[in-house]
UniProtKB/TrEMBL annotation:
Keywords: Amino-acid biosynthesis, Cytoplasm, Diaminopimelate biosynthesis, Lyase, Lysine biosynthesis, Schiff base. It comes from the Bacteria. GO terms for molecular function: 4-hydroxy-tetrahydrodipicolinate synthase activity. The keyword Kinase does not apply. Its EC number is 4.3.3.7. This is 4-hydroxy-tetrahydrodipicolinate synthase. Pfam families: DHDPS.
Length: 307
């Protein structure tokens, strides 16, 4: 384990929530809802990831991104904060990291460059530059469905030697790919980037989950992750797989924002173009699964309460 990770024990949390960015009906950032959902995550003990794809980071201007990070930092929450770094313009990403280096965040999520589809050496140069610029530990991100390219296993094995390379978020959806990373990169903490795969990946060595569904179910998702890590899978199937499925019926984060609106956690389900909540036909399945998860969590809490 590298020295940077050793000195940041707060990063060793099993659940990071890829926080949504709430918008008002006119498309402006809803900071009141943002504070409320961030505090809900902190109350559950979940780490917070800002401005990932679930947070619609690439649909925000630089100034809007910075306003969100500064606002959340100003809340002084007792959980670690991670900031996403994503795009295709390396100088712009380096500037973004340099700007965030002065803020009290704890980590960065480094995505593969979009659209360009670099090979192993191009990936190495990209991530090396970002790692070198970063002041805080970094979680690299393999998400070929969005970046268009798989993070090369041998490249990751080279990058793991960098003192700022702390972890990998693996979101290919392929157990075999996770196992290849696990074998080649024993020094990295591996996190599932797929909510539904957490029980499987926990058995293969995942240390936690970077989650979408935790936005709607902060406490219940933490229970789900803790049970997965403890290999206590009884009662998780098919409940959680069925609950997670409607959250990805259309492009993320459309369904989870709609559900949070139904829960009256968000003031509106509005997204930034090209995403729109109007692509979700109805929210009946979401509401039904929300009820089932709420019942499951209430039952767990009842079992944990002293008689």
């Amino acid at each position: 384990m590298n020295q940077t990770t050793k000195s940041n024990l707060s990063l060793n949390c099993p659940l990071w929530t890829a926080l949504v960015t709430p918008f008002l009906a006119d498309g402006e950032i809803d900071f009141i809802s943002l504070e409320a959902i961030a505090r809900d995550q902190a109350d559950a003990g979940n780490g917070i990831l800002l401005l990932g794809s679930t947070g619609e980071g690439l649909a925000l201007s630089f100034d809007e991104q910075l306003s969100i990070v500064e606002y959340i930092c100003g809340l002084s929450l007792a959980v670690p904060l991670m900031v996403a770094v994503g795009g295709y313009d390396l100088p712009a990403q380096l500037t973004w990291i340099k700007t965030c280096n002065r803020l009290p965040v704890q980590a960065y999520l480094l995505g593969s460059p979009l659209y360009a589809k670099p090979g192993p050496e191009g990936q190495f140069l990209w991530f090396s530059a970002l790692l070198e610029q970063a002041k805080y530990p970094c979680m690299l991100y393999n998400v070929p469905s969005r970046s268009g390219v798989e993070l090369d296993v041998n490249t990751l094995a080279r990058l793991q030697q960098h003192h700022n390379c702390w972890a990998l978020k693996e979101a290919s959806g392929e157990l075999e790919q996770f196992l290849r990373y696990r074998q080649a990169c024993p020094e990295l903490a591996l996190y599932s980037g797929e909510d539904a795969m957490m029980p499987y990946l926990a058995s293969a060595g995942a240390q936690g989950l970077v989650s979408v569904c935790a936005n709607a179910w902060p406490e219940a998702t933490r229970s789900y992750v803790e049970l997965s890590l403890a290999a206590e899978n009884q009662g998780l199937f098919p409940l959680w797989q069925n609950a997670i499925a409607p959250l990805f019926a259309v492009a993320n984060p459309i369904p989870v924002k709609q559900l949070m609106f139904e829960q009256q956690v968000l003031s509106s389900p509005v997204l930034r173009p090209p995403l729109t909540h109007t692509e979700l036909p109805d929210s009946q399945a979401l509401v039904h699964q929300d009820q089932l998860i709420s019942q499951w969590q209430a039952q767990r809490q009842g079992q944990a309460s002293p008689s």
